[in-house]
Amino acid sequence: MRHGKKINHLGRTASHRAAMLSNMASSLIIHKRIVTTVAKAKALRVFVEPIITRSKDASTHNYRTAFSYLKDKEAVTELFTVVGGKVANRDGGYTRILKTGNRAGDNAEMAMIELVDFNEFFEGFNADKKKSTTRRSRRGGAAAAKTAAPAAVVVEEVAVEEVAVEEVVAETAEAPVVEDAPAADETAAEDEAK
Known about the structure:
Layout: H1 14-31, E1 33-37, H2 38-54, H3 60-70, H4 73-86, E2 95-102, E3 109-115, H5 120-127, H6 141-174, H7 184-193
Antiparallel strand pairs: 1-3, 2-3
């Protein structure tokens, strides 16, 4: 029975599993994105995120600890030079798992695991959103906040209209004065009378 055992053994011995996760972590750090099964991706996320956290502080101890897990000099160099600088202000959640469907041969669930800060598509998507902190309250503070936002928009629109009206007034003041011409209805009535 496997009661209370939280680690997914992935059908491998401990040494085989450690070597596989080390190789997959090195590939993820070098290539920024790999395709694997969902179970391996979830195991890899647990394995690689603490290593990425260590890359924020480039000390000798952290270099050696990362090398003991990854066993690849190129991956450790990439981790501390490129990845560490990019994730410096992120508190966690360095990887994203996107399910891609089932494999043709054995119908295994496949997924793409990638480093969050290195996907250009999602960077542009999230750049428009401003990070806002929300606080839940029983007093209805959210309703007041919702009504305050449209009021600010209306104020901006009024300000724009006032500027436009001032420009029109200034243009009409500079234009030559033309004497009043008879209205179109009056000229039509005069023509009929003749």
